UniProtKB/TrEMBL annotation:
<feature type="domain" description="Aminotransferase class I/classII large">
    <location>
        <begin position="42"/>
        <end position="426"/>
    </location>
</feature>
<dbReference type="GO" id="GO:0008483">
    <property type="term" value="F:transaminase activity"/>
</dbReference>
<dbReference type="InterPro" id="IPR015424">
    <property type="entry name" value="PyrdxlP-dep_Trfase"/>
</dbReference>
<dbReference type="GO" id="GO:0030170">
    <property type="term" value="F:pyridoxal phosphate binding"/>
</dbReference>
<dbReference type="InterPro" id="IPR004839">
    <property type="entry name" value="Aminotransferase_I/II_large"/>
</dbReference>
<dbReference type="InterPro" id="IPR015421">
    <property type="entry name" value="PyrdxlP-dep_Trfase_major"/>
</dbReference>
<protein>
    <recommendedName>
        <fullName>Aminotransferase class I/classII large domain-containing protein</fullName>
    </recommendedName>
</protein>
<dbReference type="InterPro" id="IPR004838">
    <property type="entry name" value="NHTrfase_class1_PyrdxlP-BS"/>
</dbReference>
<dbReference type="GO" id="GO:0016847">
    <property type="term" value="F:1-aminocyclopropane-1-carboxylate synthase activity"/>
</dbReference>
<dbReference type="InterPro" id="IPR050478">
    <property type="entry name" value="Ethylene_sulfur-biosynth"/>
</dbReference>
<comment type="similarity">
    <text>Belongs to the class-I pyridoxal-phosphate-dependent aminotransferase family.</text>
</comment>
<dbReference type="Pfam" id="PF00155">
    <property type="entry name" value="Aminotran_1_2"/>
</dbReference>
<dbReference type="InterPro" id="IPR015422">
    <property type="entry name" value="PyrdxlP-dep_Trfase_small"/>
</dbReference>
<keyword id="KW-0663">Pyridoxal phosphate</keyword>
Length: 439
């Protein structure tokens, strides 16, 4: 007799059979350590920002009151331990919206009453799917996209993903024709399109969307009467021009929106995992001008609350305006320098990257290293990279890239010495494929 649900009995976790997750499994079996396992696999599939963690540790060391849950009035540990309001700590939400505005050069403002706290951006994205779509309805997503969305957006919600196919021929830009093609493809599949889901800056491309692209998306959403979810968790990682343009800033620039309800159909997801480098704190958020959605998402957030202790500590860190400004400036500087190191190292081996200005990774062109122009050849190259040369990188097919031979390589989760070693291993890979390339 079946004692568990179909969901519980399902052996696969949506998207978990992707090479993206398989690479993680191989890394965990044989992780590189410079002392105990120098020949192990280097993790270049983890988009984690560790470059400014010393700044956070320094702040903690010199600010003992918040870490001990103390204020000038004494201990507030009991108050925090008993606090359960899923609306969140007002002081934290106030500092959070100020931080979000500062990242966007204060070109847009945020109201803490329109913000929902969630246990990370994963929870925020899934909650939005539950709020915006019924099982079997669809969201359009530009390719390539983060492999985890196949799990995060679909597994429990039943929402379908229809790709907006983007091409290297125009540097993977979103065009009106690609939007319409995706919409028509969904129609042929008898899927009702409820919205578009974008990541800006892009994971895995490491690029920011242009104002033209954002305008295409907004105009399309108005014309089709659909939603836009803008995942902006990498907004604080922009280290080069062009500058980041939030979907809300693009909305403000457009004219003649008075007779539309588009402001109530555009929603932002953000977090402190990438730009502040705190994925373990599980600080995610939904921001929307749609009061009904905010009410529903707030109730839904009771299934994944952010601890009051985390909120209190982060309110103190973000409330230190001098530290916050210095961190943002230094973070951008270190990300720029680290990305430059990887790009130059790859260029010396004859490998080019898509020009990027944001993110914790590069979108790397290895098409010339394929035996032939197929995804089977891409998988063979990926296996060689991970098993023979000890590098866990993410193949483009795991990101639903329409062209074989592209790979995502992360650079901010390791020391400079480990990055140098990674480049040396890539050099050996290229040397094994084409000895005439001068590395």
């Amino acid at each position: 007799m079946k004692m568990l649900s179909r969901k519980a009995l399902c052996k696969s976790h949506a998207g978990q059979d992707s090479s993206y997750f398989l690479g993680w499994q191989e890394y965990e079996k044989n992780p590189h350590d410079p002392v105990t396992n120098p020949s192990g696999i280097i993790q270049m599939g983890l988009a984690e920002n560790q470059l400014c963690f010393d700044l956070l540790e320094s702040w903690i060391a010199t600010n003992q009151e918040p870490t001990g849950f103390m204020t000038r009035g004494g201990s507030i540990f009991k108050e925090l331990a008993l606090f359960q309001d899923y609306h969140g700590l007002p002081a934290f939400k106030k500092e959070l919206v100020g931080y979000m505005a500062e990242i966007r050069q204060n070109k847009v403002k945020f109201d803490p009453n329109k913000l929902v706290l969630t246990a990370g951006a994963t929870s925020a994205n899934e909650s939005l799917m539950f709020c915006l779509a019924e099982p079997g309805e669809a969201f359009l997503i530009p390719t390539p996209y983060y492999p985890g969305f196949d799990r995060d957006l679909k597994w429990r919600t039943g929402v379908e993903i229809v790709p907006i196919l983007c091409s290297s021929s125009n540097k993977f830009k979103i065009t009106p024709s690609s939007l319409e093609d995706a919409y028509q493809h969904a129609q042929k599949l008898h899927l009702k399109v409820k919205g578009m889901f974008i990541t800006n800056p892009s994971n895995p491309l490491g690029t920011t969307l242009s104002l033209d692209e954002l305008n295409h998306l907004i105009t399309f959403a108005i014309h089709k009467s659909i939603h836009i979810v803008s995942d902006e968790i990498y907004s604080g990682t922009v280290f080069n021009s062009p500058s980041f343009i939030s979907i809300f800033e693009a909305l403000k620039k457009l004219k003649n929106l008075e007779n539309t309800d588009i402001w109530s159909r555009v929603h932002i997801v953000s977090s402190l995992s990438k730009d502040l480098g705190l994925p373990g704190f599980r600080i995610g958020m939904i921001y929307s001008n749609n009061d009904m959605l905010i009410a529903a998402a707030t109730k839904m957030s009771s299934f994944g609350l952010v601890s009051s202790q985390s909120q209190f500590l982060l309110s103190k860190i973000l409330g230190d305006k001098k530290f916050r400004k210095n961190y943002m400036k230094e973070n951008q500087k270190r990300l720029k320098n680290r990305q430059k190191l990887l790009v130059l190292g790859l260029n010396k081996c004859g490998i080019q990257c898509l020009k990027s200005n944001a993110g914790l990774f590069c979108w790397v062109d290895m098409r010339h290293l394929l035996d032939n122009n197929t995804f089977d050849a891409e998988m063979e190259l990926w296996k060689k990279i991970i098993y023979k040369f000890g590098l866990n990188v993410s193949p483009g097919s795991s990101c639903h890239c329409a062209e074989p031979g592209w790979f995502r390589i992360c650079f901010s989760n390791m020391t400079k010495e480990t990055l140098d070693l990674s480049v040396q291993r890539i050099k050996a890979l290229v040397g094994s494929r084409a000895t005439n390339i001068d590395c």
